[in-house]
Amino acid sequence: MAMIVKNNMAAKKALNQLDKNDKAMAKSLKKVASGMKINSAADDASGFSISEKMRVQIQGLEQDVDNTQTGSSMLKVAEGGLQSSADILKTLKEKVINAANDTNTDADRITIQKELDQAIDQLDENANVSYNGKVMLDGSHNNEVLSPGTKTVLANENFSQDVNSLTKMVDLKDSSGRSLGIFKDSKIEISYVTKGETHVSVVDPVGSTRLLKLMSTSPDVVMNFSADTVIGKDRVGNDVYTANGQKALFFSAKDPGVDGQIAGLTFNVINRDGTTNRTANSILNDFREAIRAENPSPDNALVFQVGTQSNQAVKIGFSDMRAVALGLKTSDGTTLDVTTQKKANAAISVVDLALQKVLDQQTTVGSMQSRLEYTASNLTTAGENTQSSESVIRDANMAKEMTEYTKNNVITQAAQSMLAQANQNSSQVLQLLQ
After folding, report:
1. Taking every pair of C-alpha atoms in the chain, what is the biggest distance, in angstroms?
2. Does residue 162 register a pLDDT over 60?
3. For the chain, counts of helices (H) and of strands (E)
4. 30: domain range?
5. In this predicted structure, what is the pLDDT of residue 33?
6. pLDDT value of residue 216
7. Are 188 and 206 in contact (CB under 8 A)?
8. 50, 66, 183, 428: which one has the fewest Cβ atoms less than 10 Å from its Cβ?
9. 152 band by pLDDT with thresholds 50, 70 and 90
10. Which of 279, 296, 313 is the last residue of a domain?
11. Cβ distance 194 to 262 under 8 Å?
């Protein structure tokens, strides 16, 4: 080996290797100190990019879980208001049944009316329940309802399928083909409530009266027998079908919106001897509200963001739960009247329909709460799995990295020794110059 002094190549090479060893040891030290094998894009550009996207995903999923929890809290507040309204309506049912009993005097019914008025006012209070400044049950957060609004449709699907608009009352049959037992000398009382007024009409005797002639003189109600399974239009203009897929007798309000709704409908078939025809009444009074009357409304339904991408959300609309919308009060403040036996009797079906509206909304809220619980569970699982994937890419294997650090540390120390040795070798030239 040549002995030179201008360029110490051995020291140069040792220094270069020492620099490499220092950098390797610094990287190992950083991984051990941070617990991550990827600390910057320089460590692994593609892995860094993928793991950063996963971190964004994880943070979004954590916020989604928070959203579902706050959404559930809001729905619990709404459910509380609905439950209170349902409890009030259960009490009102007792009161109107009591008022329909002729053991009460007119003075007694006036007293019951006062109780009724106060309870109806409380329904409006319940509808104004709010969460974070948002009033939920007053109709301000309803789904879209196209103009001019929807009409009340009360449907009865318990009649034989050969019954039609020309069928006489005495020929009416139930769905199993049995006669309702209405005779020509029977009497039928029909009462319904709309626009705050109780209307009562009497057909006496029934004679040859046809089914659709019963309400032909009513200015507010349209009675018809569905020619097919369609009985009306919903809030967005889609056809509404009968529940059992067969024809049905239905009553429809002539005017759309809450002010024109049919709040209650009652039939009473009375035999010639004055007794009540319970068989006919049980069939004729089995109406359900197939379409609810609602005023036109924009789409103000509440949106719960439960995904990490745009429009990954669930919506829930709250129908109007105020007394007017439930048919218990008119827009001018007149409440349901129970001051006479006939009016109290008609009020029973009004309360039943109001309770049905509240329970339907309560079912909607409950099903959304259940969905949010499943959503939160799914989001939590997704977050855990994404975290696990991100950990595989980015987290350091501490045993491996510590081993690597120890190795680099030893090699660095060795390079330092060799650098010193290389420098010492160059100094041997001085011996030749003595």
Report:
1. 150
2. yes
3. 6, 13
4. 9-37+396-433
5. 87
6. 62
7. yes
8. 428
9. very high
10. 296
11. yes
383 within a domain of the structure (yes/no): no
- More confident call, 416 vs 113: 113
HSE (CB half, 13 Å, CA atoms) of 7? 4
The structure tokens listed for 116 are 């009724």
What are the backbone dihedrals phi and psi of residue 28, each rounded to the nearest 5 degrees, phi first?
Answer: -60, -40
Confidence band for 228, pLDDT divided at 50, 70 and 90: confident
For the residues 226-234, what does the mean pLDDT come to?
86
Is the pLDDT reported for residue 303 higher than 60? Answer: yes
d(CA 380, CA 374): 10
Is residue 20 a part of any domain in this protein?
A: yes
**Do residues 166 and 290 both lie within one domain?**
yes
Structural contact between residues 282 and 84, judged by C-beta atoms closer than 8 angstroms? no
Partners of 193 in the beta sheet? 198, 264
Q: Which amino acid is at 212?
A: L
d(CA 1, CA 183): 133
Which DSSP helix (H) or strand (E) runs through 194?
Answer: strand 187-194
CA dihedral angle for residue 166, residue 169, residue 174, residue 180, rounded to 10 degrees: -160
Residue type, 180: L
The DSSP code for 244 is T
Q: Are residues 423 and 288 in the same domain?
A: no
